[in-house]
Amino acid sequence: MKNLREIFKSENLDKLPNYFWENNNKICYYPSSGYDFRHIFYWDYYCEKENIEFPKIFIHTDFTCLDWNPFPKEMMGLYSFVYDKLEKEGKPLPHPLLYNGYILDEFGGGNSVVIKNWTELFLKNDVFYPNHALFHFSHLIQKNTHKVFAIQCQLINLERDVYSLKSGTSIYSLSGIKYTVINPKDKQNHNKFRVANEEGKEWNSNYNSFIFPTAKQFIILLFTMENSNFFYDVLLENNIKIDFLTHVNDGGASFGGSRTKMDFIYLYSENLGLTNMLIDSTLEEKQNHFREWEHHYYFNPKSNREPLIRKTPEINLNNWSMAKVYFPESTGIYIKGKWDTGHYNWNYSNFDKEPDSMNEARKKCMKIRENGYYVDEYYHYKRK
Question: What is the pTM of this model?
């Protein structure tokens, strides 16, 4: 087993704290992630409930997500003035995923994932870059494909991280400036987070601009690579262990560039060391899917490695317990969730609660409308 750090060149690694690379850190893998960050909130909720370690590293793979930006400048919120300035100067606009201080998603009344900083990392060994013609959206393949970006983030939970602060507590901004909390944000004073700088000047500030001692600190390693090649040429080749799997946004030769759906991951659950899986259908359905395959897509003429799908035992369902979980639907836009996504109406405790309106007929649908928005039904598998 390799430490994940070992697959990268030393360049830029010093820009990330060493504690991210400790051998016992938990890792979560999300193929075809797109702009979906909802699962990070779920794993935060689950790890708190079960009193287990939250992942320090989230691996997201998506071939073209940085090569197109569906988010107009109005969605940059406080940072829209930056877009205006760059547009006037004729300079390229930054992608939201690569913008310090940007709120990736707001969830459950104001809980949020915020970018602290980001840097590009470089693999020691190149991963095969399939021919553009293999992909449906080849016209989108541009300068940010087949790269790795380490996006350092924090997850701020209002109850745990903000409401619990005391007046007089020292706190640092994302830019590293020290402040003192004068009037902490709380349930009765929801719109105020008052601080003072070292000169004693006071003002109300946005809590998302600060680093909270109890907030979850983690990195998203974004690999803009084809899912199958990343899986075989990086994860399995380097014997990297993955504790958590999120697999709920896989186009699998429909909306994305993948040639097949990544259901073959489950056949490698023992190799990867998976302990928790959040997936879009039951494992019985997954098994029925990969049993029917005649061929498995994996293309790398530079390597002699072959996927051993037919030689790998099927997943033993007796090793896993299953529970249904419920998410507010993404509606296709994930970055900085808006009111119409349902994120603001959603409490962490709702993950485990079946919506009241789900009668027997509607349970058969993947998405159920609840309180004016849709709910996604997923399955959480835990190793016994």
Answer: 0.89
